[in-house]
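Throughout our pipeline, every protein is held as a single compact record rather than as scattered files. The record that follows is passed on verbatim for readers who wish to inspect the format.
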Amino acid sequence: MSALRSLAFWIGIFAAVIAATVLLREILLPFVAGMVLAYLLDPLANRLERSGMSRLIATLTIIGLFVAGVVALCVLTAPIIVDEVVYFIDRFPGYVRQLQALATDPSRPWLSKIIGEGLGHAEQSMGELTTLASDWFGAVLRSVWSGGQALISVFSLAVVTPVVAGYLIYDWDHMVVVVDNWVPPAQRDTVRALAREIDGTISGYVIGQGALCLIMGLFYAVALSLIGLNHSLFIGVAAGLVSFIPYLGSLAGLLVATCVGVAQFWPNWTPVLFVPAIFFVGQTVADYVLSPYLVSRRVNLNPVWVMFALFAFGYLFGFVGLLIAVPLAAAIGVLMRFVLRHYYASPIYASMPAASTTDEGKSAPSGKAPD
């Protein structure tokens, strides 16, 4: 009965946390972002504290350097991003005309069937799209000035997140002790072992996948620049950063880069064919060379499971869900492997009759937990 009560208690706690997250998801973003930031920066604070610096000074130093780094990054990259956006807006009508001419070329009727006749009316639709965009932008500005919700969100991310992260970094060790005391003493060693495994999985995935994204972004930007593609820096870096969601960055980058390449290089197909080749080589190297070394050897997270978690939690909780998707996926994976290990070692599994060997020579599972 005590085991059932404990299980019911933890199920109730879990359900309460999920319900609170759903109800408060509109205001949770700066707090969840602060928790993620504190989790990533706490090891640095511990290292500074071991070197003789007080916890308060270490926390203030880390937060100050982080804010200064973000401001410097925004100042340095804002002109580049603005120039790229302006350049893209200037060239966009030309891209539309090129694609329109390509799709309506009578010598290539198959392109008209693939692309459809909708592109033939693209220039006419540009005025309507511009009008709709202007109306939408005006509505957004009116909403900002009247309700102030977007302004509050930006203010929260810019101000509240570093403050929350600072408080959490300063009290991190104390909070860990408090949470540890919540666990019943009989299960404390097991919970600590699971927590260490979850922490290793999350940190390994974040470090490995982050390094992979930076490498792929640099590769895509340099390779696309070498073939002379317009907006190569913007497309390559964006594809690399979005690669934090497995395969989504390469697919999105391939689609955008191919459209730009067709509009820019047509009727010369040679550089256009280089675009999918670049993304194919990049994704192959990422899957079979970089990912096994940077990610797979550190964690035990299936890319399909990570993709499902990102899309599922992103759909349920928005951007907050994207922040907590990988930690929750790692925690669920660790807990499921723990449950399976105990299940395979339990009398319930051992008492099951062995399955008969099939004609192909395949027998029942050996009882070993899957990787």
